[in-house]
Amino acid sequence: MCFGSPQESSGGDISIGAKDTRKVSCQHLVFLWGFSCRMTAGTLKRLLQGSHTVFSEEFDVRLVDKSCAIVVFWKPGLSDTFLEVINSQEISGSLRELVSEGLRAACYETYKNICRLGIWEVDLAQSLEKALEEPDCLEKSDSESNPLEVCWFSDSIINLDDL
User: Fold this and answer.
1) CA torsion angle for 107, 109, 115, 120 (degrees, to 10)?
2) Taking the domain 13-162, which CATH number applies?
3) Which pairing describes strands 149-153 and 13-15: parallel, antiparallel, or unpaired?
4) pTM of the prediction?
5) Cβ 113 vs Cβ 136: under 8 Å
6) Mean per-residue pLDDT for 11-37?
């Protein structure tokens, strides 16, 4: 399911689906979990749209499994802003309600650390939680100097084997 390092093509891209594509930096991806296991990507996107101003810009949501989704922010910097907001004490509005109901978020680096540390649970959400508890998870990787890009496809589900 995971490789020692993200699977790269000759151009440094990661393939995650088929059909219509857009390239996006992995730095613009956020993993979300802690939502109802019966929630669809469309429902989650609608909930997020009104929850904070960061979601007033263009973004997309894809399910990874029943416990986890990936949000892509098309505008640079919004993923960092969202991660700062969701982890702050100043969170408000419907986003605060989602967080109080268990919504959690992590950056792509956390996913890479799951791969590097071999932390695989039944659901990706459990793996993300476990990775965030690891002291090694706080280490910065070299992605800041060499950011990867992914091809974002119009499919509604992402295949982790391709990350």
Assistant:
1) -30
2) 3.30.70.330
3) parallel
4) 0.76
5) yes
6) 75
